[in-house]
Amino acid sequence: MKEPAATGLTDEQAAAVRAKVGPNAVRSHRARPVAVLARQLRSPLLILLLVAATVSFFVGERTDAVVIGVIVALSVGLGFANEYRAERAVEALHEHMRSRARVLRGGTLVERDVIDLVPGDVVQLRLGAVVPADIELAEARDFECDESVLTGESLPVRKNPGDTALMGTVVTAGTAAGTVSQTGAGTAFGAIAAGLGERHAETAFQIGLRRFSGLLVWVAAALTAGVFTTNLIMGRPLLDAMLFSLAIAVGVTPQLLPVVVTTSLATGSRRLTRLKVLVKRLVAIEDLGDVEVLFTDKTGTLTQAKIALRQAVFPDGTPDPGGADGPFRFGVLCADPPGSTPLDDALHEAMHDARAMREWAPENCRRIDAKPFDHERRMASVLVEDLAGETRTIVKGAPEAVLARCRAVPEESRRLAERLFAEGARLVAVAVRQGERELVESDLDLAGFLVFSDPPKPGVEHALERLAALGVTVKILTGDHPAVATGLCEKIGLPVTGVLAGEEIERLDDAALADALPATTVFARVSPEQKARIVGIQRSGGLDVAYLGDGVNDALALHRADVGISVDTGADVARDAADVVLLEKDLGVLADGIVEGRRIFANTIKYLLMGTASNVGNMFSAAAASAVLPFLPMLPSQVLLNNLLYDASQLTIPADAVDGEQLARPARFDLGLIRRFMLVFGPLSSMFDLAMFALLLRVFHTAPPLFRAAWFVESLATQTLVIFIVRTRRTPFWRSRPATALVIAVGVVVAAGLALPYAPFASDLGLAPIPPAILGTIAVVLIVYLALVEVVKRRFRTVPAPRGRHLPPHHHVHRRATPFSRGLRVVRHGLARSASGS
User: Coiled-coil region(s) at which residues (predicted)?
Assistant: First the structure.
């Protein structure tokens, strides 16, 4: 493609324009403290508590009002601090993720961040690029764009000089150059995005979150209404009954779930960034942990991506010394400029090394016309004219495609190609047609073959062993010949159970292909559409699928996978389609990401299991006691303070250690597990609470302040210390050690709760000092309770969970997922959207 006549803007001119029109961005991510704080205050229960506390203040209950206000403020502060930290982590991630465009600045073709483009810049576009702004095309050669992101139309749109390439669309064929006419919000893409604002249409995940949250609200509302009505019947003051009921409602909900999940994801993203893994969607970290099948390309992942020209040979296998009419010269003449493709780069490097031996110079030929490589033709071609005025069409590409367009192919040439493929070489056929003034890709004469090598990547065998140990099956999707792929698998120790070529896949319907997938390791000579189809059918079988690729032909499959993975050096469209971007294309790095995802998932489950059972158990105890005692078992401010201290002890769960067996396989859980856990351990907790109530009333004959102080300490100790039991399937501390931070946090909270009855302001909180005899009783109850939980836990873990019912497949939902696991995905996706400001 010719250079545009314009020299483009200088950097200084572009900076001046950018100062007037702003950066080329629809909107940028910024951690906004006010927005984070507003999200913390959206809880209707917190608002009701603040209103009730205000009323209490003005009717004379000023101590209770101040205590409740302080507790609510601390609770909001904890949530704000952790979510804002996660927002800052996402902001830092966005700084890593920058796309670049080829632009003329001062007559020189350079790469610039797309955010720096301004109207008047001259931009070049090529296959796989995401159009960085609205661009008026001055030149276009076989140029097509996928505009589905704007129009929903799946077929590419052909663009000619004078047309506008729209921001956000993807170049699917050809090359072009033009001038930026609109940037940022002034583009068609920007107008649509601005119209959507910060809100997106509700997804299946968000619908599930709404239903799951609705269930919790229903439980809290039913319990609150029952407690409120009971307290009124027993003649307690209206304000006291309302405050206590609201405190019960706050206590029954796992309020820290968003904070725990967001903190886990943000912590995981920081760890993965240090491991050279950038996560574009925080939720993709946990999605990585679910991966069971990994489809990957071959070049750069399993090989070193150091493609070198091994030799050029004539059709009979004779080496080409680099003469004027050999496959080497024709391959160089047909190659795109350096930086276009690894194979063409290898040709340029070989040409540079052999320049002293050459008697011909490619610059003495003029390129008249060209058709770039595409995945349908599987070839590229040029029409060139030499100094003598002789023209010829040169075609290079996949041997099957090129040989099919040749007039006559000796049988020895076909055998030569098969032999080279069997050796594991990457092979490109070169053919020519003499004397035509137009580019014609038929009736060609075979000139020979270009033989390339790409050795296996060091350490790939160990990475494959790690993935196998994690329960991840690796399969290869490649455009290479089947023999090349299977030869590589033999070298790196990846067992090949079956091979399917693109032609065979085309003949299979979806049901037949689904049957063939389990027994197939290598999918060769596959088109982009076939890659996406394979990934989609594998997902529909109920498995969690990741796809690793960095080329234009990988974009469809990246979109179709549960987790799309690319590299920072990949094509723009591949990086944009991916959920995870690797700074180093290494399966070992990917294995680290999978382990991190499972670690986060395991720690989230710890909070859910413990929080659901403990909260429900304690709040049921409080509700039951309020119905039979002549006084409230805890004051509203004490319930909230207890809940705040408990929540504070759980903030270190995201950093907790995880047992090895929890990382060995993808984690699965369902509503049945949560329900059974709640129904077993909730009543167990309440049983000990009620026993403590009986001892305090019948044995020690305690007054209300002492009763409340004793139960405050016992309740806080049981629900916080039980984390050490439920966090592991093993024997606590002996065979599974928690993180030091978790031990310290729980210890500090229990000590604080124990010290409160003895504090100078204890009477203001409605608490009284606890005598040693009652402290000893609390200690005995606590020890017996924890020992019984450990025994029941072992029995509980051995009972098989009931099978969850299956729901219909959805584009974003796993078929094997149960209703609750879908709800968790909703939580995670909703938090990721919230954290990314989208």
Answer: none
φ, ψ of residue 679 in degrees (nearest 5): -75, -20
d(CA 635, CA 186): 58
- Measured between its terminal Cα atoms, the distance across the chain in Å is 39
Q: Are strands 563-567 and 100-105 parallel, antiparallel or unpaired?
A: unpaired
C-alpha dist (Å) from residue 6 to 57, 175, 713:
73, 17, 78
pTM of the complete model:
0.69
CB 53 within 8 A of CB 70: no
CATH topology of domain 308-453: Calcium-transporting ATPase, cytoplasmic domain N (3.40.1110)
Is 187 a residue whose pLDDT tops 80?
yes
> SS3 breakdown of the chain: % helix, strand, coil, rounded to 5?
55, 15, 30
Instruction: Report, at the CATH architecture level, how domain 1-199 is classified.
Output: Distorted Sandwich (2.70)
The type of residue at 28 is S
Fold of domain 587-802: Calcium-transporting ATPase, transmembrane domain (1.20.1110)
Structure confidence by residue, pLDDT tens digits, 786-819: 999 999 888 775 544 433 333 333 333 333 333 3
b/e per residue, 583-602, with b = 16+ CB within 10 A?
eebbbbbbbbbbbbbbbbbb
Q: Report how far apart, in Å, the C-alpha atoms of 111 and of each of 125, 172, 335, 418 are.
A: 12, 20, 21, 41
What gap in Å lies between CA 302 and CA 515, rounded to an integer?
26
Fold for 287-303+456-585, please state it. Answer: Rossmann fold (3.40.50)
**Exposed (0-12), middle (13-18) or buried (19+): which is 478, by Cβ within 10 Å?**
buried
Q: How deeply is 93 buried, as exposed, middle or buried, from its count of CB atoms within 10 A (0-12, 13-18, 19+)?
A: buried
CB atoms within 10 A of CB 744: 12
Q: Which residues are catalytic?
A: 297
Instruction: Please give the backbone phi and psi of residue 343, each rounded to the nearest 5 degrees, phi first.
Output: -65, -45
DSSP 122-148: EEEE-TTPBP-SEEEEEEEEEEEEE-H
How far apart CA 758 and CA 744 sit, in angstroms, is: 22
Six-digit token string for 821: 């696991």
Reading the block at residue 272, the tokens are 């993965």
Asked whether the CA dihedral 268, 271, 275, 281 is positive or negative, the reply is: positive
CA distance 81 to 583: 29
Distance CA 303, CA 485 (A): 11
Q: Are strands 122-125 and 100-105 parallel, antiparallel or unpaired?
A: antiparallel
